[in-house]
Amino acid sequence: MQDDDLRRLLARELHDRVAQTLTTMLIELEHYKTEQHGRQSVLRQMEALQTSTREVLGSLREVLYELRSDPTEIGQGFEESVRTLVDRFSARTSIKTKLIVSEGWPGRVKSPAAVNLYRIIEEGLTNVRQHSGATEANVVLTDTMDHLLAVITDNGRGIDLDESVPLGMGMLGMRERALFLGADLKVTSYPGAGTELTVAIPRRALA
């Protein structure tokens, strides 16, 4: 089975078995709430459970969206794919996020290298959502003479890199993808001063 077929099969299974179950749970919880009139402590617990279930369902739908996307389309329209990712992230998280693209960024990016860079950006934004406490973030696609750069910055709480190496924050997967690209991946952060993730890819690997 080819990778694309496997992705579609996995997306279908997740939708049929998991997403529909979560949706059913939400409906049943709503019905159960109507039977708890006046029991405020129970109602609060039910509402908290509904909120958590909606968050899980929302995250699952994001995964399904990515699984159903065609990797070749990312290469053919990389900038537009990243713009869609950023817009969806901003709308879903309420973290004001902008995409800034320099004039030197190529109009078309090689696949599968484009897919790996896209996944790095995606994981970087996931880190912003889960760990930073940020209210604003930027994704910058820019270039130098020999390299293409993808930079993600946020105004969050930052991390102390001297105290912990954040391999548990998706860094291992991002470093593996950067290695595939022959890219340098660097995290710059100070407590209270936000975080900057920079990926520097040799131009020949993408353009």
Question: What can you see in these coordinates?
Answer:
- Helices cover 57% and strands 17% of the residues.
- The chain has 207 residues and is an alpha+beta fold.
- It has two domains: 3-68; 71-206, Histidine kinase-like ATPase, C-terminal domain (Heat Shock Protein 90).
- The chain has a five-stranded mixed sheet with strand order 1-2-3-5-4.
- The longest helix is centred in the first third of the chain and has 32 residues, at 3-34.
- The radius of gyration is 20 Å and the shape is globular.
- The model has no long low-confidence stretch (mean pLDDT 82).
Short synopsis of the structure:
The chain is α+β, with helices and mostly antiparallel strands and 207 residues long.
CATH topology of the largest domain: Heat Shock Protein 90
How many domains is the backbone divided into? 2
Total beta-strand segments: 5
Residue share in helix: 55-70%
Calculate the mean pLDDT score and round it: 82
Task: Please report the distance between the alpha carbons of the first and last residues.
Answer: 30 Å
User: Which oligomeric form is depicted?
Assistant: single chain
DSSP helix count? 7
Strand order of the largest sheet: 1-2-3-5-4
CATH architecture of the largest domain: 2-Layer Sandwich
CATH class value of the largest domain: Alpha Beta
Structural class: alpha+beta
Q: Topology as H/E string?
A: HHHHEHEEHEEH
Radius of gyration: 20 Å
Note the main sheet: 5 strands, mixed
Which regions have little confidence, pLDDT < 50, spanning 5+ residues?
none
